[in-house]
Design a protein that fits this description.
Layout: H1 5-19, H2 24-35, H3 45-57, E1 62-66, H4 72-81, E2 86-91, H5 94-106, E3 113-117, H6 120-130, E4 135-140, H7 147-154, E5 158-167, H8 183-197, E6 201-210, E7 213-222
Parallel strand pairs: 1-2, 1-4, 2-3, 4-5
Antiparallel strand pairs: 5-7, 6-7
Helix pairs in contact: 2-5, 3-4, 6-7, 7-8
């Protein structure tokens, strides 16, 4: 039978305490977003740990994050790539980018993380034009209306054998509404359909419940 959101949160708290405890840098990053009036959009700690483990599983040394906010997930990713790795994270809001740099520096990761300001689509196109070294992991967590464009550009920047993760693909179940005119739903459905139809990808999506309510991830492996 359906359990309450309070129960979901309690389970998350248990898993986080046991498996993904936050240190001071992560707590500060999470708290700074709210104090600065930024939206409560960062991943939960156990989700951040999942991103970290995915990076470690494939030996990721180059990670591209689309959507930085206050840098919470960036810290998880920066720690996962270790000292020889690099994270490029894209943020449209200059105030959020500045806050993220402070949080990243507090976590001791300034030397391996670059925060790039500007529209993510423009930054991605610039990276493509520059012919940068391919990334191992791309994490998509920005404005959802541009999700299909993010995926298209990510595919030009990630190596074969790399992984693309997209956040917030369930949207409290609204993703099943084909008639929705909400650009976040439309963009998410377009992302899922693009993952399904692209021969370069093998993908799945998972629902999650917990601190972040009812939502989920799409995860794609780049196979060619």
């Amino acid at each position: 039978m359906y359990r309450s959101e309070e129960a979901w949160r309690s389970v998350d708290e248990y898993f986080i305490a046991a498996l993904a405890p936050e240190d001071e840098a992560l707590v500060e990053a999470r708290g700074s977003a709210g104090a600065a009036g930024l939206p409560d959009h960062e991943v939960a700690a156990n989700q951040g740990k999942l991103l970290s483990i995915l990076c470690q599983m494939i030996g990721a040394r180059r990670v591209l994050e689309i959507g930085t906010l206050a840098g919470y997930s960036t810290i998880w990713l920066g720690r996962a790539v270790e000292a020889e790795g690099h994270v490029t994270t894209l943020e449209v809001d200059p105030a959020a980018a500045s806050l993220a740099r402070d949080n990243i520096a507090r976590a001791g990761l300034a030397g391996r993380v670059e925060v790039v300001e500007g529209r993510a689509v423009d930054s991605l196109r610039r990276l493509v034009a520059q012919g940068v070294e391919p990334y191992d992991v791309v994490f998509i967590d920005a404005d959802k209306g541009d999700n299909p464009t993010y995926l298209d550009l990510a595919l030009r920047l990630v190596r074969v054998g790399g992984v693309i993760v997209a956040d917030n693909v369930v949207r409290n179940g609204d993703v099943t509404d084909a008639s929705s005119d909400d650009e976040r739903v439309v963009g998410t459905r377009a992302l899922i359909e693009a993952m399904s139809s692209n021969d370069r990808l093998t993908a799945t999506a998972l629902q999650t419940v917990g601190r972040k309510g009812w939502d989920g991830f799409a995860i794609a492996l780049v196979v060619s």
